[in-house]
Structure formats: structure tokens, C-alpha cells
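S., here's the first fold you wanted:
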Amino acid sequence: MTQETISFVYVTYIRSTPEKVFAAITKPEIARRYWGHENVSDWNPGSKWEHIRADGERTVELVGKVIEVSPPTRLVITWANASQASDPASYSRVTFAIEEYDNMVRLTVSHDELEAGSGMANGIKQGWPAVLSSLKSFLETGRGIDLSAKPKSA
């Protein structure tokens, strides 16, 4: 019996260039400034990538492989918790599509092949919107948002 898979698609518009958006995703020194993590790879198809916490502990939290790369418009990677790296069934896929849109960029992030009801599927529902909001704020203002912020109590 096959496990049901689901997909999520997120779209945002950023006053920036495709080159700056692509660099913000792939350059560790930029990603740490709005994500609190570094995406580390040589970004060649077939290469591994790691999502490393940008703190003193440098914990590798996510891992995967680069499937496709066409700077500055497209990046496709596999995605899994580092603790589940040895289980092929735990991997999902993330596609970053970056297109010029008048004087801005339309960034579409598609996260698919997710196991329905899994911790990963539940986590990205909140994770991607916050990360992409922080990316947008960072590229437009020079400052990301507080990704650890919680709702104010009523």
C-alpha cells in the first residue's frame, strides 16, 4: 500500500532581482541573515546539500540532493530531516521557481512528495510562509523577521 502524498505551493512577490533571490537561497552567508540556517552545497546536480543551523552548534537539520539547477531562475532539491536521511521514503522535493515580473520577482516554492499527516508536512505549513516572509523582508529592507515569534495572547 502506498502512502498518500500531498503538495504545498507558496507564491510571493519581492522587489528584487532573480539573481539576488537565487543568491539568498543558495549562499550560506545570506541565508543565515533571514533564515537562521545556511544552505550549504556546491549546487551542482547530484551534489548533496545541507541545511545547517547558523549558531555555535552548527547542527545539520535537513539534508538532500540537488536535482536541477538553472541560476537564477530554478532550483530543485530533495529534502529530509537529517535524522531520517537513510530512509528514501522520508524525502520530499522542493522547487524554487524565480521569474522576473515587471520590476520585481515572483518566487514560487513548491514542496511536494510529502507524506500526508507527517511531521514534515505539518511543519512546513508554518515554516515556509514565515521563511518566505523573512526572505522578502530581508531583500526589500535589509532585515529579516523574527522566525521565533509567537502569537500574542488575547
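And the second, which I think is the more interesting of the pair:
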Amino acid sequence: MITYRTGNDIDLDEMIELYVDSTLGERRPVGERERMGRMLEEANLVITAWDGTLMVGISRSVTDWVYCTYLSDLAVRSAYQGRGIGKQMIRLTRQAAPASSVILLAAPKAVDYYPKIGMKPHDSAWLLLPGEEPV
């Protein structure tokens, strides 16, 4: 049975290993332990999924609780994908901040997933990547 917890008091090495297993690690700085630690510490809404003592999923968000919740990471272990774990973590994220919009940027492999669970596309997202400045 999968259980869910809220809070960022989790083992960093377990989180990094989960990111790698889920393939999200391909787009996150998993080789930069200090940066990954800060990502975990500074997130103010973290929901994890557990199969006993094994962390099988994580959603990591930054939110103001009333207007927007940026769900920056959603990762589920490869062997556990397709069981509704990601959808449940999104549901719990929504429940934690019910007045805010949940916003995310889909990983390329997950682009087709989000419309299936009722999320709407938005065609005017813009990025400034680290090291870039407005011109």
C-alpha cells in the first residue's frame, strides 16, 4: 500500500536516487549534491509517496498558498509509474493550496501525461535560464 507524507524532512541521497530512477534526473542537477539539497530545503511544499520504507515518488513545489503553486518536480520511480501515484501527489498538492493555480513545466517525456489527468496547456510561459539576463 502506498502512503503519502507532506514535508521536506527526507534523506537527500534517497531523493537524488529517486530522481535518477524516474529519469527526472536527466534534467536536474543530481550531480550537484549541495544544489539538490538547497532545492529540497527551499521548497515549501513537498509531498512524497512511500512503499513501506522506500520513497517511490516526490512532488516538490514552491507556493504562496493563495495565488500560485509552481510544481517544479514530479517524479515517480520507473517501476511504480502508471499506478496513479503522480496523480495523487498532484491532488495532494492541490488540496494543500486549494485557492492557488498549480503551474508546471512538463518534462519532454511527460508532455502527454498532464492533459490525460485534466491539466490545461498554457501557451505563454517564458523562461530565463540560470546565467541569462533580460536584454
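Why I say that: The mean pLDDT is 94. Strands lie at 2-6, 45-51, 54-63, 68-76, 101-103.

Talk tomorrow,
H.
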